[in-house]
Amino acid sequence: MRRTRGHGAREQGRPDRARLPLRRSLLGRLLAVSALVAACSVAATAWIAVQTTSGAIKQEQGQNLTADARIYDTLLQYAARNPTWDGVGATVRELARESGRRVALTTQGRQPLADSATGEAAPALPPQASAVVDPLSVDTVLAARGADGQGTGADRIDPRAVGPFRLSAADSRALRRTADDKVACLNRAGIASDVVVGASGRPRVQIVGNDPERALGTRCDLAALDSPTRSERKALDALTELADACLKRQGREGVRLNNDLSWGDPAPVAVPGEPGAVVPRPVPAPRDAPAEQAAPSVEMPELTGENDRAIASCVGTARSEQLSSYVASPALLFIGDEGGATLPGFDLSPANTARIAGAAALVLALTVGASVFAGARLVRPLHALTGAAQRMRDGEQPASVPVSGDDEVGRLAAAFNDMSAHRARLEEQRKAMVSDVAHELRTPLSNIRGWLEAAQDGLADPDPAFVSSLLEEAVLLQHIIDDLQDLAAADAGALRLHPEPVEIRELLGQVAAAHQARAENAGVTLAVTATAPGPALSADPVRLRQAVGNLVSNAVRHTPEGGRVTLRAYVAGRDASGPYASEEGGGTVVIEVTDTGSGIPADDLPRVFDRFWRAEKSRSRRTGGSGLGLAIVRKLVEAHGGTVEATSTEGEGSTFALRLPGASEQGRRPAPDGMTTAF
Q1: pTM of the model
Q2: Is 269:223 a contact under the CB 8 Å cutoff?
Q3: Rounded distance, CA 299 to CA 310, Å?
């Protein structure tokens, strides 16, 4: 089975950044801005529309209610002054024309009396009437009450329904002349007054101001205007008889009504010629008695709250009975639109329409402005990223972009800066690598060319030593090319591994045996610290020997004569002890190569695994190799899913540790990206 990993390898040791919470993310801010703009737009539009529309509705309803009250009052006046509805059609049509509404009157049996909508196409009347026009039972909500009402506060009889109390033209003219004389008298006394004519035709003097009692101190006798005429006394007597009949049916005593339809003691009047003197007003005679005949005394019933209520009820009943033949019968009033609807509609005025349109335009402008502002703030860092990417594409020096926050855009900017810095480092490494490869290849090629030119010129004999020297340079050249090929294969993901169970003790022994001769020539002791069976490991033995061999070769090269290079392996797991101790379930297998050489400066440790890097800058063959060995070690170890690290103390030596997953860890740990593993 073959598994191939992709090339998107993530650098070892770089943890993933936690996912941003929604409230700090770009998506959350976009949603918040959109929701805020939408809420403000809807709220502002709704508020302005409600305010404007409700104002228009209230204004229109107020106008309609005013028009309805005027229609009702006009028809109520007609009913109070006319015994029938004959001739009301002209009044109905005039009211409909002035109000722009449909006005219709029917009897209580819904027989039509008058209708402003004429013709067969007139819509049917609604089932519910707008009001009942009855001057003897007024709708107090719609009625415009007269200022000279003759009833009590609880009286629902229209004050314009006077019936038999209406004065004749002669009596009205006579009383008007008397009223004019009284007004002139009061004006001479410095008291402003006017003549007001009531619904019955009786004039009265109204004092201008808030102190009507001032007239009592003058010589202007106003009592003459209060004396009832013959027709009024007759109507009052008839009303008294009707009220007495009602009271007698209840077993109560009769009552004498005053001119203002009150009962009890007569109302006081001013005595002519006596300033400020007030005497009781004489009660008029019940019949057409002479003026000089005194009215007979009437024994008044005991006045109690219960009697007052009974008298008031009987007086109201008596008035309705007396006036019934003088007023029109009750009628149903229908007020509606010309199309037949009883509820009035309304049309927005041009001003209100303009206000709503302007408010909508303002809300739209604010919405667009807020969206543009929010979008500009969100897009600005993206523009900076785009510009930086284009400059990198054009080959300019990469520059970092500002990081504005820790949201998605901020993280993108930070990642771009990391990528830009990494790309700059890679570019520097590429240039250095080209230079180093040219240098490494130039040395053996120059040597081979020199020896061949010397042989051609007869300066050197092609003896075995000559051939051995050329072979050594060719082998070195082949070694450099093989190392470059291994690195290229690792970078391209074409480095193939053939894992199998490996016994570490045996592998370390093989590596030590392979480098034993070189170590002895350098005067260096090469040893494996233990001989017990090593930990279980599944790896490619060839590639693993290559990695450990590179470390041993490097250690021998940098260890002075008399020094020591030690190879050891152990399991770095819980409960592990001893160099080769292992535990059930595996662990991390650690292979260490320790030398007692010159050591590596602390500033150079982070770069020891870079390609072509050497601590000795002259790149002399006596002090170092090609600079690819440790880079190959890192690639081979990463291909096995492990890591490599170096620790060193300058002047004391260095330790290189390979950390590889144990045999049981191999099945749980994924293979590294960019490697091909063949089983």
Answers
A1: 0.43
A2: yes
A3: 18
